[in-house]
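Why does residue order matter? Because the sequence determines the fold. Keep that principle in mind as you read this record.
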Amino acid sequence: MSTNVLFVDDEPQVLSALRQALRKSGLRIEPAPSAEAALERLARGPVDVVVSDERMPGTQGSELLALVRAADPHTIRILLTGQASVEAAVRAVNDAAVHRFLTKPCPPNVLLATIRELIEQRDAEAAKAAHAAAPAPPEERERSRAEIRIDELEALELEHPGIGAVERTPDGVIILQE
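Structure:
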């Protein structure tokens, strides 16, 4: 299955350069020239990764990524900016819980390696969660107290035949001897 990556940047030449640099990566790359265009695309269905520029007219990248997080927390969020500021970093971490904060210019091989690493981490966490949610096979699950007691009684019966035969009386339990 191919990884679907939505790149959001208001500079057409940046989107074109990213698409060109990553064309042989195996990623399905979708460009969006604004946060609003990205939200329209996301309304049609989820993507695996959103890589957004921070400074854009209208909605900032960190604001967009916070909306992406709220809509689908499993979407990987990367902020890629040429004008990193402390405020942007704080918003990106606190509000959007970005997975990475990268600065422009970012070499395509670094961006590609980052995307692949984050996809592997997400998939490993999903597999671990699925494994934890699945019922354990009988040989791995913990035995209940009742199951343990039944086994102990069966072992006692083998060692002392008839020990399990009891007759209840008004005074209590009487073990019958044969």
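Residues 145-175 form one domain.
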